[in-house]
Design goal:
Elements lengths: L1 H19 L11 E8 L6 E8 L3 E8 L38 E7 L4 E5 L12 E6 L7 E9 L17 E12 L6 H7 L5
Length: 199
Amino acid sequence: MRATRWVVGGAALLLVGALSLPAQVIREDGVKSVAGTLGGIEGRAYMEYSFSSAGDEILFASIDAMTYQNAGRNAEEHASGLITPMAGAGDEGACEDESGDQLCLQLVDATGEVLCWAERPKNPGWQRDPRLVCILPTVRSKPEPYFLRVALADQSCADLVYPEAPQDRLIPYLLNVSLRRIAPEGPLATAVALSKNRL
């Protein structure tokens, strides 16, 4: 009986310990990263990065921006830092000011059409930065150009309309990206080799 109680109690402690651990975003191996800024004197509402693909590939992209701090968690410091944390309903430690920055990711083709986009996810609630995945269609001729945009978001990330960028501060971000071939069925080692990031 005592052994049973110890096992149950130990399991409960392990569960409580696991729940109290700080949540982190797990990145896949082999990504490439680009540091950039929005806003500032030039008032840039988006930054654009180009690449080409013949298709049968998957683009993975994510942003690290709002997960970082440069002025701590005190409410009075929110307005004084270079970064204005994005506020959201029910977020602990969020600023009361609802005008906080929000970023989105867009994949745009050569015609200017937004093929895929990602904004702040609904789940999990602590994650504030967008993560995008987009399957690129097969191209039968030469590789097609694509443009990956890191942008300030308004009501929708699905269009090419952007809010006015602040000129009195910079919004830094880290863009993590990988472009991987869709591997055919077969030996796992071969599939892993074919799916390495080609950027």
